[in-house]
Amino acid sequence: MIGNGAVADKVVVVGAGVIGLGCAWQLARRGAGVTVFEKGRRGSGASGAALGALWPPAARHEGTLQKLHRESLWQFQEFVRQVQDASGLRISYLRQGKLELLTSPRAVAQAEAETVAANASWPPLEDGRPVMEVLTRRQALALAPQVQTREYGATLCRRTAQVDVAELLAGLTQACQRAGVEIYEATAVERLALQPGQVAGVYVHGELKPASAVLLCAGVETGGLGGTVSALAPIKPIKGQALLLRSQAPLLDQIVKSGKIFVVPWPDGRLLVGSTTEPQAGFDLANTAEGVAWLLQGAAEICPKLKATKLERIWAGLRPAGPGKRPIMGIFPGVPNLYICGGHYKTGVGMAPLVGEWMAQLILTGRMEPHLGEFAPGVPA
Ligand SMILES: Cc1cc2nc3c(=O)[nH]c(=O)nc-3n(C[C@H](O)[C@H](O)[C@H](O)COP(=O)(O)OP(=O)(O)OC[C@H]3O[C@@H](n4cnc5c(N)ncnc54)[C@H](O)[C@@H]3O)c2cc1C
């Protein structure tokens, strides 16, 4: 049953990013008939630009969003296993940790407090090692000899993981299709068929596609759907540039972060470097000389040997950001069969396991996780 009494014969999901596909799969697994309309190719929005870094927000950040994000990350490995099983495709997922370089005595003091909080409250590791440690420069160099660690040392977060996002998107697509989801690429939803008190479906190629529920996962273009959606779901683009380096032999064994720049290494020699944060850029997707130079310089400061690696690809993506950089998730006021899940900004990949489950539960049973209410459309951030 749809939460509000209609039969779940046809849920339409708008957008095939990691959030739309994640929700579609969770809906289909629970028996719903699901159709996904994607205006480009699956993953052609922000999801295809993501670096797949999965680090938990600071343990001392106790806001609802941070708690949900952590909860989702703790589920990620199991989520990957389930998508692999359902799709038959391999998805690379590693938990090699993150080394964050410290640059001042103040940063060291904060890292120490953060370490105490993380070790006290995060799920312990299977091998009993602490989830987080502050390392001296000498210890950091022993762990990562290629990294230019300063005298203040570094924190090592062993709960940080990474996923190959292209493989995850391929796996989710295949899992969806095996569960009966129909996915139409190059098929934009032009508008919603809004009627008093309900949405009757969506228009594609000028034709009404009836639906018993519509879930909007259209990322930065959600507002383009007009009417109540634009007013209550003002999701804005925040551009991020990134690049891919390739080394012959692996140079780094864990994610390394210094200031705003981070490098995600894979054992096959790929090194993903991210990312700029450009809220003024609007919908512009161009790579700029300044952006690329900043990333290359930052990466070389982290690990000078990266200067000799091959620059394989540069790209930019538009992160969907809800008001206050918080996601918008839930039911539109006055339209009880119109739902949204979007605006996850820098955390959409990491949040996908949890929000997919919660949205499917909300749409199919009407049961709303108590925390979801904070993120409903129209609720002030
Ligand atoms: C450079 C960069 C690095 C990032 N790194 C990370 C990271 O390391 N970890 C992390 O967790 N997150 C990261 N993110 C953030 C992450 O990419 C996003 O939070 C996430 O991809 C959002 O997913 P989504 O499905 O909501 O949006 P999108 O992936 O943008 O999907 C929306 C889809 O809707 C489609 N669409 C739009 N309008 C319509 C329409 N009218 N009809 C049909 N389809 C439509 C679009 O074509 C698009 O495919 C990064 C983002 C960027 C840009």
Please provide a written account of the structure.
By secondary structure, the protein is of the alpha+beta class. The protein has 2 domains: about 160 residues, FAD/NAD(P)-binding domain (3-Layer(bba) Sandwich), CATH 3.50.50; about 150 residues, 2-Layer Sandwich (D-Amino Acid Oxidase, Chain A, domain 2), CATH 3.30.9. The chain is built from 9 helices and 20 strands. The strands form 4 sheets. The protein has an 8-stranded mixed sheet with strand order 6-7-5-15-16-17-14-18, sandwiched between helices. A hairpin with a 4-residue loop joins strand 16 and strand 17. It starts with 10 loop residues before the first strand and ends in a 16-residue tail after the last helix. The protein binds flavin-adenine dinucleotide. Flavin-adenine dinucleotide (FAD) binds next to helix 1, strand 14, strand 18 and helix 9.
Q: List cofactors, ions and other ligands.
A: flavin-adenine dinucleotide
Rough outline? globular
CATH top level of the largest domain is Alpha Beta
CATH evolutionary superfamily of the largest domain: FAD/NAD(P)-binding domain
Output the number of helix runs: 9
How many strands appear in the DSSP assignment? Answer: 20
Spatial order of the strands forming the largest sheet: 6-7-5-15-16-17-14-18
How much beta, percentage-wise?
A: 25-35%
Order of helices and strands: EHEEHHEEHEHEEHEEEEEHEEEEHEEEH
Report on the biggest sheet: 8 strands, mixed
Radius of gyration from the CA trace?
21 Å
Based on secondary structure, the structural category is alpha+beta
Give average pLDDT, whole number. Answer: 95
- CATH-level-2 architecture of the largest domain: 3-Layer(bba) Sandwich
Total number of distinct structural domains: 2
Cα(first) to Cα(last) distance is 31 Å
- How much helix is in the residues? 25-40%
Stretches with pLDDT under 50, minimum 5 residues:
1-7
Query: What's the CATH topology name of the largest domain?
Result: FAD/NAD(P)-binding domain
